[in-house]
Amino acid sequence: MKARTFAIGSAAAVLALVGGTFAWTVARSGGDLADCLGGQVAGGAIGGPFELVDEAGATVTSEEVLTEPTLLYFGYTFCPDVCPLDTARNATALDLLAERGIEAQGVFVTVDPTRDTPEVLADFTDSFHPDIRGLSGTTEQVDAAAKAYKVYYQLHDDEDPDYYLVDHSNFTYLVLPERGFVDFFRADASPDAVAERTACVVDAVN
């Protein structure tokens, strides 16, 4: 995996909390996957269909993208700290899963579609892992996908048109084909933990 350095202005904390508490909670699938999932929480449904634009500039649907176990992440390429760290963690987890014979992929959905063109996303994702795919789209398309996954984000593009920052939640979602969202990982989850829980889920549904 190629290393890449990201620096932009003064670093700002990427928000995983809104007003000191989570703005949403998660309802997991449970049942046959209960032994694999993280801490028990409850709340509204997460996930749903989306339509975005891939790195080649083609419009794609969630059914076309989420064809194998997926580590789905919402962020942006100009992010000075959290996004590259989380993406590197996910890339390592994909390698650990591959060592176990599990085919999985990463998907990076930008919350900054103005700057994150398909070409910019391709360069960003390729620098981390060949099996991480970048998705952009119109503001409306990105808003719809973020809303489906209960992603919080706020652009500060009124501060600087070129070097603005974006506050956003930074969870990685585990999504399975046909089944949809099943779990999420916080930023402090290690690559081993992400791979272990993902493998447990994949084994449980096969």
From TrEMBL:
- UniProt-recorded Gene Ontology molecular function terms: metal ion binding
InterPro entries given in the database record: SCO1/SenC, Thioredoxin-like_sf
Keyword Transmembrane attributed? no
Can you tell me which residues bind Cu cation? 79, 83, 168
Q: What is this protein called?
A: PrrC
Return the similarity comment.
Answer: Belongs to the SCO1/2 family.
N-terminal signal peptide: 1-23
What Pfam families does the database record attribute to this sequence?
Answer: SCO1-SenC
